[in-house]
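tool=predict chain=A
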Amino acid sequence: MFYTEILESISHIPAAEWNQLITDPDASPFIRHEYLEAMELSGSVSVSTGWQPCHFAVRRRDNDELLCAMPAYLKKHSYGEFVFDWAWANAYQQNGLQYYPKLLSAIPFTPVSGSRVVGDHQEAQEILIATCVQWIKEQNISSMHMLFPCSASEELLKKFNFLRRESIQFHWQNHSLERPSEKLSDFHEFLYTLNKKRRNNILRERQSVEEAGILFEHMPGSSMQASDWDDFYTFYASNYINHGNAPYLTRSFFEIIGKTMAEYIHVIFAIKENRRIASSLLFRNRSPNERVYGRYWGSTEYVSNLHFETAYYQSIEFCIREKISIFEGGAQGEHKIHRGLLPVNLYSMHYLVDDRFANAVQNFLEQEGNSMHKYLNELVEHQPIKKS
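tool=predict ok
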């Protein structure tokens, strides 16, 4: 009735077939075929970068109809995931076992929650996960991991003894305190949803950027030309180089998505004395309950508080202006809560073939989860939002 494919490139599935499986109206742009294919075509994910594409799909045998699919990669390391399992890898090595390669279902370099198994056919979904588990055992692969899946995936994965790991991110929400059913009218109203200390801190930060003579240019993806992407990539790459790392994504990746996903893209440039000195990139999911995802920030010149203004405050103003519901500010960063982004509980799911390590990791995750929930409650208790 069904059969499973394991594909070395997402290009082996037509874009129309893949995208029609994305039925969640709030799905992010990152699960779209165009985004995942750009990762491969640009060389950002490949065998040489330690991200070997290994996608799974289930089709109906009688007519080859695609019923569900999952992006996946054989990983030789744990870089670019934002869920840290280095200690697990070290424990394997100390016991004479190989942790890598591992099978990872995730959006590369993109810590955003959402669908990982696309397609609503429940039986096909179970066949897909069962195939993954059986395959890693046959290939002597240590484990399978699914990062930041949507909430509906947990029950499916628990049937196959996947373990849940807790995570926290910070998201900004666009709603008025005085008009609970409505969105904010301007940035000034947003400031007055915050307590006085945080409100005054943001005002000081914004004033310092203004006094430095910084102006901002907002460009929708449809307006971006090759020279604009050149400028953006200079800033993006500098953020990695300044920390002693090579950029994860190639210049070609941005050129490709600039052509194939322009409607989902919005770029913010910071300008000083008629020179662009910084930028940040936003994706928008174009759903009825629209979200914006802050992705990449970088600069070639230091200006105090420029990061907060370019990556957060300009993005929040954009969301208010466009009536966008939620701004996801990226992974980590407790400093975000001081700027009006509130803590949100996310999770990942993990399957380890070796029962001894699975039991040890389960005990660890239970303790870590208790600590994480306690930390989340403390953050909520001390959030800067005034009560309505």
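The chain has a mean pLDDT of 94. The first helix runs from residue 15 to 20.
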